[in-house]
Amino acid sequence: MPQYTYQAVDTKNKRVKGLIPARDLGHAEEQLRELGLYPISVQTQAKRKSGGFGSRKISSKEVLSFTIQLHLMFTAGLPLLQSLQNIAEQEKNPKFRDVIQDICKKIETTGSFSEAIAAHPKVFPPFYLGAVRAGEQGGTLADILKELATSLEKQDELQAELKQALMYPAMIVVVMSSVTGFYAFYLMPKMMKLVIELGAPIPWYTRGVQFVIGSIMTFWIPIVVLIGASVAGILLYRRTESGAYTLSYMKMKFPLFGSVIQKTVLCTFSHYLSLLLHSGFGLLRSLELVKGTIGNKSIIRSIETIEERIKRGESFADSMKGLPFPGFMITMIGLGEQTGKVAEQLSLINAYFEKDVQRTIKKVLTIMEPLILVVFGGASALILLSTFFPLYNSMGAIK
What we know:
Number of domains: 2
Order of helices and strands: EEHEHHHHHHHHHHHHHHHH
Oligomer: single chain
Shape: elongated
CATH class of the largest domain: Mainly Alpha
CATH topology of the largest domain: Receptor-associated Protein
Number of helices: 17
Number of strands: 3
Structural class: mainly alpha
Helix content: over 70%
Distance between the termini: 96 Å
């Protein structure tokens, strides 16, 4: 009997992992439900060891395109299985094509779309699976697919806008670093040789710049090794529980970009939580699923704290107090609880954060661009002046 690895949620909303023998995927999930577990993903052990479909990287844009196409075909009246088969035939990415074909095979066996995509948790995150499962149970799969397409599109646009905004200052840094490096490590040594040959005195500020540049040129190997070791250490530290939490917290406190990161995470949180609540999930189940969409460990830990407080009897709004959620967000959720419209309030909060992220990005760039020019321009000017003043003085002495 084949073995199946699974990820599930127990009655206390705690995520559990394990291995279970079963005849097939449906039998495995049936056994998990009998044990009081809610399956999130179930895979054959062989597929996990061989790097199955779920372990392959497929871009969010491809998942977005898949969702949009599926929604359009399904809404037009084409059966789900036929829609998926058509999408698989047109899919250009062979990895994603294999995933869609595998989903088709599982639907033919189990008849469930949600159970089919549950086998690919690294392609379809928990909130996606949860929304599809709710749509199947409530007979609103077409509406859910539309909501998912809108959600994924908004998040993709937000990420693309953030990357595009960072591209210009990154290019400035690269260009200015190259120019400063050329002045420091190529032009200045050659010019200083000429000054020495002319016998001109070298002022103290030029000697200071020479000392710094000379030290870098002499000890560049240890410097590179130290930087590489520091980066490797940070990456290893990030893999630990405490490291992931600490670095996630520090990212939100980082000057300039910290506020952008925090607002982007809160935008994702409010957006997907609203979607899941609209889909018919309870608050605790929605919070559990939405954790799979948040890449920031600090916010994930805050969500876990909220879950614990709600289980103790606190309201959703009260459970958010003292955590990294802005006051207006807590107030609006409190109003939503009073009127029974928490999902609608979260939609409004998400709309606010989307615009606020855009405003914050523009504000950060307005500060960053002149700051970069001042720092690198100042360094280049210092090197040039430290080089040409002695050269100018030596030429004057010759005259």
